[in-house]
From TrEMBL, chain A:
Keyword entries, A-Z: Cell cycle, Cell division, Membrane, Transmembrane, Transmembrane helix
Keyword match Zinc: no
Coiled-coil region(s): none
A GO cellular component entry from the record: cell division site
Protein name, UniProt field: Cell division protein
Membrane-spanning intervals of the chain: 25-46, 169-192, 198-216, 228-246, 266-287
Organism listed in the record: Asticcacaulis biprosthecium C19
Gene Ontology process terms (BP): cell division
Domain of life: Bacteria
TrEMBL record, chain B:
Keyword line: ATP-binding, Cell cycle, Cell division, Nucleotide-binding
PROSITE patterns per UniProt: ABC_TRANSPORTER_1, ABC_TRANSPORTER_2
GO molecular function, one term: transmembrane transporter activity
Function, in words: Part of the ABC transporter FtsEX involved in cellular division. Important for assembly or stability of the septal ring.
GO biological process assignments: cell division
Keyword Lipoprotein appears in the UniProt entry: no
Record-linked SMART domains: AAA
Highest taxon of source: Bacteria
Gene Ontology terms: cellular component: plasma membrane
Family: Belongs to the ABC transporter superfamily.
Domain ABC transporter residues, every copy: 25-254
Stated name of the protein: Cell division ATP-binding protein FtsE
Species annotation: Asticcacaulis biprosthecium C19
Classification via InterPro entries: AAA+_ATPase (IPR003593), ABC_transporter-like_ATP-bd (IPR003439), ABC_transporter-like_CS (IPR017871), ABC_transpr_LolD-like (IPR015854), P-loop_NTPase (IPR027417)
Amino acid sequence: MSVVSRLSSMKARHLLPEQDQREIALHYVIGVLCVLACLAALIVMASDRAARGWAREIRAEVTVQVRPTGLESGSVAAARAAEVLAGVKGVGQVTALEPQKAKDLIKPWLGDAILDDLPIPNLVSVRLDDKTPATTKALTDALISHDIDASIDDHSVWMKDVEQSALTIRLISIGIFFIIFSATAAVVGFATRAGLTARANIVEVLSLCGATDLFIAQRFQYRFARMAFESGLLGAAIAAGVMAIIKATGSSQSFALALPFSWLDLLILLPCPFLVALIAAVTARIVTLRLLGGKG
Amino acid sequence: MAQINEKNRLANTVTGFLPGDDAVVAFDNVSLGYDAASEADFILKSLSFQLPAGSFHFLTGPSGAGKTSLLKMIYLAQAPTSGRISLFGEAVDNGDRAQVARLRSKLGIVFQEFRLLEHLNVFDNAALPLFVHGQNFRQYRDDVTELLNWVGLKNQLQAMPHVLSGGEKQRLAIARAVVTRPTLILADEPTGNIDYAMGLRIMRLFVELNRLGATVLIATHDESLVRASGMPVLELKDGQISRRDLNTTVGGRL
């Protein structure tokens, strides 16, 4: 390489001086925002998975309360109902809850004293087929056809609550995600203004050399996009680390139940640095063109 | 007021130029006032003149006469308070940013305060207009190196501006202004920070570029340099412009 070919280091990025103190702070702020945005994205994924899981579990379970008729005992009626329900298409596993087991379940709340005087319901737990679950009507029809007096609880009341809660969590997480990205855009816009003011002399020289507003805007666009990408990459890495720690340490079982992270969720972090860079580039371009009075 | 304007217009219409379509710069009844309440307080009053293509003029006048303001209006950094300016036969609209950029790309400007970019080295500062116009390093490296050699900066190609003396900065600013071989060269005190010998050398560069077809307008206090050149002079005084021809042959001693 000749001496002459080493003369110039001028590339698009070098038309603006290397970063100053303000930009280090901006790096930090964008990085933090990106961590929060990435965590919000991970929570969206996990809450969605949790909601689907809860809904699937609730849909797959049906509880049947059997009322014995005539001289038939409760446990016999429950056993007969279980046998009938097991024959319905779309039913997986059927278990008649033994009276003693039902008492054991109630005992912690009511104690031993009055337990014997209480009418313990005769319950049958029905696990539906995952792919082609039996409908409540099919189960009811089957029981009626065998003269079994029973009521079926398909948990639809709980289902609505669970779905509503899951939807709320998802919407809140998505909202937070977008609020954080809009905050990133605002921060970049503010920084672009500051950068443009701080480098007014450079902008003026470029302009007097015949540079178009678009040319100048592209310098700022490139600068802020690169900075945002680097910060975004760091932010995504930190968010991935946080998720990995939560998942690897197991955390508490209730936490894993509420937010069941999957390693595949990490894939959603991949576009985050690009997205934040895109936001920064577009914001820097718009702000620069507007400040220079261009029509963009 | 209309009568006063007309009177001023006639008084400030510089005669002796070659009016016509080949005017690179044309001022038509142009006035400029910074926060001035009345026309009497304007810094430049109803100026009408033209700079024909290929002409060479000095712009002189006492401090505060408005030389820099006049140059600013020509390089479109300052809009006139009233009147019309045309560059290269095109009426100027300072609000049209695309037009401003296009017209400026035909200009080479030397600023009194240099306006070098401190984070770029000498070579990159000189090559800046070429880079801005989309040329790549391979296209311009020989021309820029040769030009910097010519202005005496061949040993400082990679130096940063802050290590240069005032004279070296001036020469670099001049190199940057002429590197694109502009159609119109505007210089504000281009020899203010350099010695007489280097001043003459720089003037020879301007004359040479003028011979190659560039129109040149140089604002200066340096009467000796003006006399040495023998080029026509536009003199600004009391907001008005007048032409002064020197009794020397064209090109003078340069």
